[in-house]
Design goal:
With 303 residues, the chain is α+β, with helices and mostly antiparallel strands. It has 3 domains: 34 residues; 35 residues; 174 residues, no CATH class. It has 7 helices and 8 strands, in the order E-E-H-H-H-E-E-H-H-E-H-E-E-E-H. The strands form 2 sheets. It has a 6-stranded antiparallel beta sheet, with helices on both faces. The protein has a two-stranded antiparallel sheet with strand order 1-2. A hairpin with a 6-residue loop joins strand 1 and strand 2. Helix 2 packs antiparallel against helix 6 and helix 4 packs antiparallel against helix 5. It is rod-shaped and about 145 Å long. The termini are far apart.
């Protein structure tokens, strides 16, 4: 059997004392058999890369985390939105579903019946009738569409009061409030005398600012989207604090139309009948609740 150098592994003869390759001294202990090379099995698969499995796991974990965070985010937005919707419903007393339904119905009707008919709202209430109900002489009316009221409406004008007349009205209403018998305060109610005094102040202020050219009373009519009009009226009044300050008990029925709502300090009145709504501006009208209901009844009878 051939021998090999124990230092460099070169083949050596049986009698050689020194390695011909590296010069190392040979010895019996140094003679070793050359290790046979280990044959690799044919078509052996390469060893798996440990890092590859880790990357896959990291990607899956990341996707899972993003999915969970996304679900939490969407869920959080949903529940946040729902919380604000509930807050708005509690503040206004109007259900979000009712408003959405009204908007959809309004859009449907507008798309089907955009007739473009312009009606003169003054045909629904003459100035003589208005004078009798409002207990003040109406000298002219105007139902022409304008920048403020492009739809069906009517403005009622009275003779402007002088500075002295307006001051006298304010003073008289203040004296009436002062001399009114004291009664126990009721929730959601302010004395009618205070409401009328504020309306006299409003009339004096408006007449001074508009040089007597502002209407004393006005109303608008929506013949198609009345439910939406009433819902918007309620929301605006509740958000404005109308339920906290009113001219009468908040629960007092108005007894007109299918539904009705009166604004803060009897400043406005909205009445729904079938699918039409009439909104009255009573900012300057004293005893606005009773007079507004009487006007609304007269108008609804002609729609």
């Amino acid at each position: 059997m051939p021998s090999f150098c124990g230092s460099c592994g070169a083949p050596m003869g049986d009698q050689a004392g020194f390695c011909g390759g590296c010069g190392a001294r040979s010895s019996a202990a140094g003679h070793q058999q050359a290790p046979l090379p280990q044959a690799r099995p044919p078509f052996a698969a390469p060893p798996p890369v440990a890092a590859g499995g880790s990357i896959v796991k990291i990607v899956l974990i990341a996707v899972g985390v993003l999915f969970v965070l996304g679900a939490i985010g969407v869920g959080g937005m949903y529940y946040t939105a729902r919380r604000y919707v509930r807050m708005a419903e509690e503040a206004t007393g109007v259900k979000a579903g009712d408003v959405i339904g009204s908007v959809r119905e309004a859009a449907r009707r507008s798309g089907k019946s955009a007739s473009g008919v312009k009606r003169d709202g003054c045909l629904l209430l003459t100035k003589e009738e208005a004078s009798a109900i409002l207990e003040i002489e109406v000298i002219r009316t105007d139902g022409t569409p304008n920048e403020q009221e492009s739809g069906e409406h009517c403005d009622f004008f009275v003779r402007p009061g002088t500075v002295e007349e307006n001051a006298a009205r304010v003073k008289a209403s203040a004296e009436a409030l002062k001399n009114a018998p004291q009664s126990e305060a009721k929730p959601n109610q302010i004395p009618p005398g205070a409401v009328d005094m504020n309306k006299n102040v409003a009339r004096a202020t408006i007449e001074a600012a508009r040089n007597g050219e502002a209407p004393y009373f006005a109303f608008t009519v929506d013949r198609e989207n009345g439910k939406l009009t009433l819902q918007a009226f309620k929301i605006a009044d509740r958000l404005g604090g109308g339920d906290l300050v009113s001219g009468g008990p908040a629960s007092a029925p108005l007894g007109v139309g299918d539904q009705a709502a009166i604004g803060m300090a009897e400043s406005r009145l909205c009445v729904l009948k079938d699918r039409s709504a009439v909104t009255l501006d009573l900012t300057q009208v004293t005893n606005g609740r009773a007079k507004g209901i009487a006007v609304a009844k007269a108008i609804l009878g002609r729609l």
